[in-house]
Amino acid sequence: MREETVGAGEAALKLGERFRCGVGVDQDLWAARHCYGVSARLGDIEGQNNLGTMLLNGLGGAPDAKAATRWYRAAAEQGQAVAQFNLAMRHLYGSGTERDDAIAARWLMLSAEQGYIEAIGELGTLFRFGRGVQTDLLVAAELHIAAAQAGDDCAHGNLAAYQGELETLALDGSREAALRLSQMADWGLGCDEDPAQCWAWLSWAREGCRPDPEEDEGVRTAVIDAMDFFRSVQPKAVRLAGESWLSEKVARHRAKNRGSEPLATRA
Question: pTM (2 decimals)?
Answer without folding.
Answer: 0.90
